[in-house]
Amino acid sequence: MAVRQRILVVEKDKSFLEVLETTLRLMGVEACCVLGDWDTPFKVAEDKFDGAFIDWDSPHFDTRDLIRRIRHSAPNAKIPLIVLTTPNDLRAVAEAFEAGATFCLTKPVDAGQLETLLNTTRGVTLEERRKYQRVPLKATVLCAWGQKQEAKRVQGHTLNVSSTGLLMSFTPHPPMGSIVAVELKLPDSNSPLALRGIVTRDGPAHQVAIRFTGLSPEHRELLEKCVSTGSPAS
After folding, report:
1. How far apart are the first and last CA of the chain?
2. Average pLDDT value over all residues in the chain
3. Where among 132, 157, 179 does a domain terminate?
4. Can you tell me the distance from the alpha carbon of 24 to that of 29, in angstroms, rounded to the nearest whole number?
């Protein structure tokens, strides 16, 4: 079954944004459209997309800075990033590529160009989906953080896991940005995995999202096997 791509579209021109949204949805794409508002840079740090179309001339923020934020965000660092420019603006094209754009398109964009790009980037989408796919998993997990007198070691349970991180529930929990040590026992594993990570999000019901850092090839392979044999979480 074909992957339904989720694409971020940031465009200052409302009529052109509506045209892009309609065209992409007719192609089976979930278009997440933003009229170039001020909080767009914060969206890319939290949400996962399969690609992005970014208007180069935004009055709300520095587009070069937005591209760099995308390239440095955990969920979207490697997505295809298409910058939309005005005709014959060679400086914009050069600056966009320097900032980290994958492609540049001149406005207006036709349906044929969009379809070609989506087909070209579909392989990247599949690979990124595989990395971030989550599967439900309820397993005991130990989480430790802090140093010396302030050190804490708390037991909780996982809600879901991916090859790049996990969502768990426990209290008390470490603050955002904390470096943590995690002991996780996967199904069919003889001993717990000793992992390290960083807290990227906290939510209701004492939920904490942890992104793994410095995974060994062996641990990555075990996590990918767990994800590929499980049922994806919604």
Report:
1. 17
2. 82
3. 132
4. 5
Does 234 map to a domain?
no
Looking up residue 149, the CATH number of its domain turns out to be 2.40.10.220
Q: Are residues 90 and 11 in the same domain?
A: yes
Same domain for 157 and 123: no
| pLDDT (average), residues 155-173 | 87
Question: Do 101 and 67 form a contact (C-beta atoms < 8 A)?
Answer: yes
Token pair of 178 as six digits: 């904390």
| pLDDT exceeds cutoff 90 at 196 | yes
Q: Are residue 109 and residue 140 in the same domain, yes or no?
A: no
Residue 202 has a pLDDT of: 80
> 4 near 29, Cβ under 8 Å?
yes
Residue 161 tokens, joined = 């896991």
DSSP type of residue 228: H
What DSSP designation does 7 have?
E
What tokens were used for 188?
């069919």
Q: Which residues of 116-143 are buried (b: 16+ CB within 10 A; e: fewer)?
A: ebbeebbeebeebeebbbbbebebebbb
pLDDT at 5: 77
Residues 139 and 69 in one domain: no
131: nearest Cα among 163, 86, 173, 94? 163
